[in-house]
Design goal:
Blueprint: H1 2-91, E1 100-107, E2 110-115, H2 132-139, E3 144-151, E4 157-164, E5 183-184, E6 200-203, E7 207-208
Parallel strand pairs: 5-7
Antiparallel strand pairs: 1-2, 1-3, 3-4, 4-6
């Protein structure tokens, strides 16, 4: 009986010791893994945030530059339409406009002209010859923009400023005739973005001052 009691006591002691050691080992293993997991989450989170910030910045810059490029193209297209109309009108017996500047306002399909060239310059000898505003409506349907067009003594529309999405503009907020094709202040950061933040197309293209 004594031997049996001793054996049972020894077995009980061994079981308790094993359980205690197993418990300690489990806690240590769990504790050791937690810092590593937290560290990975923190690093991954930091990289994700930085990458998205950079992507957002470059995406915004790309969008702005794309809009400016589109507005530059529109400025050149308006100048070409006016130039072609002047030549066609003269061929049909119309008069050549005087040297100077004109204003064209596109308002979602409507066109208003003022300044050195208007619909009054249309030839009187060909009744079905379209006016300048009619041709502009055809070439630029549904457009909204404020445009300055410059015509030289030969009747050539040689320069243009196209303010995207606007029907009026502060003259100090857009390049003047003598600035076109050179350098201008813009918003101090991006050529084609006016000081007030408007997208402005130019023909000839006008760079940021000092570049």
């Amino acid at each position: 009986m004594r031997k049996f009691a001793r054996s049972m006591a020894a077995l009980a002691f061994a079981a308790v010791t094993t359980a205690a050691l197993t418990g300690c080992g489990g806690e240590q293993s769990s504790t050791a893994q937690q810092p590593s997991s937290a560290g990975q989450s923190s690093v991954a989170g930091g990289n994700f945030s930085a990458e998205n910030s950079a992507a957002s910045f470059f995406s915004t810059e790309h969008i702005i530059r794309s809009k400016v490029t589109s507005a530059d193209s529109s400025a050149m297209s308006v100048a070409n339409t006016v130039k072609t109309w002047i030549m066609d009108n003269q061929t049909a017996g119309g008069r050549m406009p005087g040297e100077g500047e004109g204003t064209i306002i596109f308002d979602n399909g409507n066109v208003t002209l003022s300044g050195v060239i208007t619909d009054a310059d249309k030839t009187k000898y060909t009744s079905n010859f379209e006016t300048l505003s009619e041709r502009l409506k055809t070439d630029f349907p549904s457009t909204t923009a404020y445009v300055k067009i410059y015509i030289n003594g030969s009747g050539n529309a040689y320069a243009c400023v196209f303010v995207e999405g606007e029907t009026k503009a502060d003259e100090s907020d857009i390049p003047g005739k003598d600035d076109l094709g050179k350098g201008w202040k813009w918003d101090g950061k991006t050529a084609g973005v006016s000081p007030s933040g408007k997208i402005v197309g130019t023909y000839p293209r006008t760079a940021l001052e000092g570049q």
